[in-house]
Amino acid sequence: MTLQQLKYIITLDQERHFARAAELCAITQPGLTIQLKNLEEEIGVKIFDRSRVPLTPTPIGEEIIEKAKKVLRETESIQNLVINKKNDLQGTLNIGIIPTLSPYLVPLFIRQLEQTLPKMKFVIRESSTGELMNSLETGRIDVAIMSTPTGNANLREFPLFHEPFIAYLHPNHPALKEKTYQLREQDKLELLLLQEEYCFNAQLLDICSKGKKKNHERFMYDINSIETLKNLVRASLGFAVVPWLSVMSEWQNGFCKVFKEPVPVREISLVVSDSFTRKLLLEKLSDVIWKSLPEALKENRKYKRIRWNDSPYFMKVVEEFKEGKSR
Questions:
Q1: Any idea where the HTH lysR-type domain is (predicted)?
Q2: Model's pTM, two decimal places?
């Protein structure tokens, strides 16, 4: 049994498809099949049921895969421990970030990060919350910048800041005349959302529906861009709630309104696997991001944190991610 074989079965579980897994592992499909067969013969059990489509782990295979993830995390922690002890801030850092944050936050800190850590190479990947959590557990990324808490016991979270949600209103909205925004029943009906896989939706529905059942499917657009949402609002096609950073340069256009206190916010954190040991690197990254933030985000205000994993829509997000993985 080798570490490489463990990586193979983890990737197979992730993709549930031999061809896709082989491509990710940089191995031929026959080669991957042989490696899996060799491992199964060595331990004397079947890890995957090949008769089912998509490929499905056997009951004992599921346990083996979970153990394999732990082994790889511990192996990585040994490597990171040595690097950390040497204070050797070099190598590659794979950073994942949610799409509702990436286009607004990354440009603020990336240049300063390169200057602060000149020996480091940074690879930034934009992915949904579910994909980021999976990538952290499987070691495909080192750190994620995302909304928390995740509710995942295998991950560690280090809060960075609280980002307020802002009401984005069309030109004829009556609340534009008010100093602050207070939710109206009509706005609940006109709420525009992103693709359902996003934890962002769960937060918005917590803000706007207050736990009441509402039929929002009529207003679901198959898009994943906050900029598209804002354009739809400007065309008077709905109402949107957007993160503060996405409108930080738009306050003069008249579409933005701060919520009446307590202002709803999302907690943004650095998230790593429970085996991550490069403490100094994490501290440097946290410091650079904090210093890059606009001063308005550092002010103390009366906030109401929206915990997306407490939302009634959270399990739906998780289940849809799992279903997508099995296709």
A1: 1-58
A2: 0.69
For the chain, 327 residues long, give each residue's pLDDT as a single digit of tens. 898 999 899 998 888 888 988 988 889 999 999 999 999 999 999 999 888 878 889 999 999 998 898 888 778 777 766 765 555 677 889 999 999 899 999 999 999 999 999 989 999 999 988 889 988 988 889 999 999 888 888 899 999 999 998 999 988 888 888 888 888 888 777 777 776 445 665 666 666 654 444 444 444 555 668 898 899 888 888 888 889 999 998 877 778 998 888 888 889 999 999 888 788 888 899 999 999 999 988 876 556 555 545 444 333 434 444 454 444
CB-CB contact of 161 with 147 (8 Å) = no
Angle at 36 between CA 79 and CA 327, to 5 degrees: 95
Whether 179 maps to a domain, the answer reads yes
Determine the Cα–Cα distance for residues 127 and 96; give it in Å rounded to an integer: 7
CATH code for position 169: 3.40.190.10
- Of 264, 283, 306, the one marking the end of a domain is 264
In Å, how far are 8, 80, 204, 222, 261 from 134, measured between CA atoms? 15, 20, 23, 23, 35
Do both 167 and 245 map to the same domain? Answer: yes
Report if residue 301 sits inside a domain: no
